[in-house]
Amino acid sequence: MFCLVQRLNPVLKTKVTGYKLIRFILDLKPRDHVGHQQFESPNWLPANKRVEQVMLGHVFKVKHKLAPSYMNSFLVSQNIVHSYSTRLSAKGGFNLP
């Protein structure tokens, strides 16, 4: 039984955090009901789309030299990887090192 509770604990923490965020944003009281309608009202992105948005933001910052210098090592320009003339290298593509 203890093992099952430990597995559910991160899931429960995520749910509780979500409920607290919704209550804070919508200015609800601590015991007010939070349902599906309240979760849709802030128009948040799903988790996978949010991760994609953050990653694309990092790529944008690296490409336009707005990122800190340590982030430049995470992406390598396509032109440095090889000298072939490809569509990706013409557009300024990146590779992971």
What attributes does this structure have?
single chain, 97 residues, mainly alpha, 2 domains, two-stranded antiparallel ribbon, 5 helices, 2 strands, 56% helix, elongated
What's this, in brief?
With 97 residues, the chain is mainly alpha-helical. It has five helices and two strands.
Average pLDDT reading: 79
- The H-and-E topology, N to C, reads as HHHEHHE
- Give the helix tally: 5
**C-alpha termini separation:** 44 Å
The stretches of 5 or more residues where confidence is low (pLDDT under 50) are: none
For the biggest β-sheet, the strand order reads 1-2
Largest sheet: 2 strands, antiparallel
Proportion of helical residues: 55-70%
How many structural units, i.e. domains?
Answer: 2
Radius of gyration: 21 Å
Principal-axes geometry comes out as: elongated
Tell me the strand percentage band. under 5%
Which structural class matches the secondary elements?
Answer: mainly alpha
Number of strands: 2
